[in-house]
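tool=predict chain=A
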Amino acid sequence: GFDLLVTLAAWTGGGIVAWQLWPAAIAMTRDDSRASPTIVAAATAMVVCLLASGSWQASGIAIPLLVLLANSQPATAGDGSSNPLLGRRFSAVVATLGFASFVYLSWLPTVGVWTAEQELQSAQDDEQALAITTQALQDDPFNTEPLQWRVDILVRRALLGPSDRLAVATSQAEDAMDEWLSVDIASFLNWKYAGERLLELAAQAHAQGQDPHALLERSLHYYTQAANRFPSDVELQLQVALTAYLTGDREIYRLGLEEAYRLSEQSPHDDKKLETQTIWLPLQLGDLLRPPLSSDSPPFPAQVADHIPAEPVANWLRKTMVEPTQ
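tool=predict ok
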């Protein structure tokens, strides 16, 4: 997790910037031709924070910057600044506490998660990978990424593990999804991702001769939650319709399909129309889509991959009103 060359380059660049800006910072804090000693604490904290990359260092910059700006204002008569040394010491304490808070509450947790993400790439097995995610959660309990990593690991274990362990492994994956989504509930992408993984697990269960209906219903729930959070997404509405068709929920199937067509027709953007979208359907679930009973209905679009063009699927769903196999 430690890149020596990048770190050296960052510290060198930050040092040059600090060297160039130091005289200006000193000048900002002069009061009666005397430099404020709080510049040492404030400017040092600012420079160290700027050496980090990404927006997460903003909290480390904010407090020292405020202290610097406060000290740049000269004291005026009657403002109660009878003891400027005491005020400077207080400012130095605030800057130090602000920087320490940044290090322990932002910098170290972020670096810990970054390191864990790299360690996952070389994990020897699922147990080691799960241990890495647990450590990442301990390093930064407010970061939900490790929870998604855990979902990925457990879904992979269920898909690649022995058939007699599929039910147990699937249950563990579902529990991990619930834990993840319970703390990261806002993003539609999370719910969509969970719906895709549930379809994969349903396809695996179906391929092994097990009933996938419960998993399909749960996948429909996740897709519905995603569509509720992003109701103007054509792909999501059609995904809800197709998944509802697989579960046998004709009402949700009909409403989702109608909404997908309505959004596609009203959108002025070509990349938001049905003909440019794709639908997620694992290959093993293809035989759940029975051939239409009426001879004039088209066959389901030929499928050679898990992602298939959306427009042919939408046309097929609109013309096909038979009950799906459950």
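Residues 84-120 form the longest helix (37 residues). DSSP finds twelve helices and two strands in the chain.
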